[in-house]
Design goal:
With about 160 residues, this protein is an alpha/beta fold. Helices cover about 40% and strands about 25% of the residues. The strands form two sheets. The protein has a five-stranded mixed sheet. Strands 1-2 form a two-stranded parallel sheet.
């Protein structure tokens, strides 16, 4: 089985999602199924079928997340250091075309959220950054064409 790298925060977020699905969502779905059963004939009961579909989705998501957690390789970012970019690094870049500064943390696939500045280790920009140091210029092929970034800062926090 392939290990899945993730930060401690990402691991905790998945545990919290599982807890929510098992307690809050499972209870809500059970009540919806019971209410739909009370309406009578189940063969033509759309509410019942919808609730059962939600139940199947919920249980599948729980199983998927539990599988991911069982294969998780939690990396303590605070124990890392150095000036080379690796998993968990928070990297400040400057776009050489627009002179716009951006900061990204390189995280696991399951915890990536570009709106929060967290990019997946498997994304093109993260793959281009891995192993590079402050002052290096990286070329990234994007759907909109090539982009060039200079690494301004590498931190582990």
């Amino acid at each position: 089985m392939e290990k899945i790298p993730m930060t401690a925060e990402g691991y905790e977020a998945l545990q919290e999602e599982i807890r929510h699905l098992k307690t809050v969502e499972r209870e809500r779905i059970i009540k919806a199924i019971a209410e739909a059963r009370a309406h009578g004939d189940l063969s033509e009961n759309a509410e019942y079928h919808a609730a059962k579909e939600q139940q199947a989705w919920n249980e599948a998501r729980v199983a998927e997340l539990e599988d991911k957690l069982s294969r998780a390789e939690v990396i303590d970012v605070s124990s890392l250091s150095g000036d080379r970019v690796q998993f968990g690094a928070t990297v400040t870049l400057i776009d050489e075309d627009t002179e716009k500064e951006v900061t990204y943390q390189i995280v696991g696939d399951l915890e990536a959220d570009v709106n929060k500045g967290r990019i997946s280790i498997s994304s093109p920009i993260a793959r281009a950054l891995i192993g590079k140091s402050v002052g290096d210029v990286v070329e990234v092929n994007t759907p909109g064409g090539g982009k060039s970034y200079e690494i301004l800062k590498v931190e582990y926090k």
